[in-house]
Amino acid sequence: MKYLKTGLLLFLVNCIFILSSQAQDTVQYVVAGRANSAVQQSKPYVIMISADGFRYDLADKYNAQFLKQKRAEGVQAPSMQPSFPSLTFPNHYTIATGLRPAHHGIVANTFYRNNGTQRYALRDRSAVTDPSWYGGIPIWVLAEKQQMLSASFYWVGSEAPIDGTYPTYYYHYNEQIPIDRRIEIVKEWLQLPEDKRPHMITFYMPEVDHQEHSYGVDNDSVKAAVHFVDEAVRKLTQMTDALGLPVNYIFLSDHGMSNVDTQHPFRRPQSLDSSKFNVAIGASMVQLYAKNLSKKEIKKAYRALKNEAGDRYAVYLKKKTPRRWHYAARDDRYGRIGDILMVAPAGKAFNFSTRKSSPGEHGYDNEAQDMQATFYAWGPAFKEHLTIPPFANIHVYPLV
Known about the structure:
Blueprint: H1 2-20, E1 28-30, H2 38-41, E2 45-51, H3 58-61, H4 65-73, E3 75-81, H5 88-97, H6 101-104, E4 110-113, E5 118-121, H7 125-128, H8 139-145, E6 150-153, E7 169-171, H9 179-190, E8 200-205, H10 207-215, H11 220-241, E9 247-252, E10 258-259, E11 277-281, E12 285-290, H12 295-309, E13 314-317, E14 340-343, E15 360-361, E16 373-378, E17 386-387, E18 391-392, H13 396-399
Parallel strand pairs: 2-8, 2-9, 3-17, 3-18, 6-7, 6-8
Antiparallel strand pairs: 1-7, 3-16, 4-5, 9-16, 10-15, 11-12, 12-14, 13-14
Helix pairs in contact: 1-11, 9-11, 10-11
């Protein structure tokens, strides 16, 4: 009981820190002049809920009672395979577009384009809201172009006018709006007049991922976060069901999580020359973008890095990555994958700074068991009491 109280206290302190650490934009943005067509008004509703980092086994591991009930009533998969790399931004945008990261352009949480002259990073507001970074047609854009209104309570890409189109109702990402208020806003959307009511809603929750990064998977703070998500989904489902509308729910995640050896991180290789490469550093993968080097010079750098890595982690040339990743030169439609990739095995991490490594990480090989994500669905459009085989997350888009 002592440890549970400690974990809950840490969880609450972390939430308070997040909420008070910076002023964030909490305004709801509404695109004026849109309306559902008569045909779309007769369609059912979809609420797609993402719990970041909700590993395939967490509902059972921490007894998420409501989610276990709904998956049993509807459709469930033992797991859902993320796309490589198993990171938040690439996989949320894959779920939204049905395209793999190398095909839609969001190839990592941090990466470069235009020969290393432009950088995308998840905390860079100018990049996140710039539509030129995003390929494909997200599900909300597809809906809007068919005169079906959409709403997004956070999703990668929803803050940018992709193909000139925002969701009709959307928010800039922030962590200041309490969960009960967020749920109430979804209810308000579904109580709008039929011509103004969104039929496609995305709803993102970061709590589990935050706690896993801070404490690792096997921690009472993660358990508390799982219960927080479970209770939020219960409230959201029961509140919207009370409206009597035909709502279909999809609960999923972007990736899993591995506990990390924080005592033995992979440090910056001595052979890495930052004067010759732009470096996109991640805990699970480091990408090197050559600065006007010849192929011969790139290969020379690759051989030196590979020799230094030994059998501790993998080093690849862009054209030689595993085919099953769909993450090589032949797949790179937008030219955003690094010339050289350093990829850690699950449970290990790169750390080029003086800070201690995070106890939990993801981004590893998408076949690693700990990276597997969650998929449950229920509602009038879904069969009841059905378990389907594990599947890749590129198949969510055509389902929706």
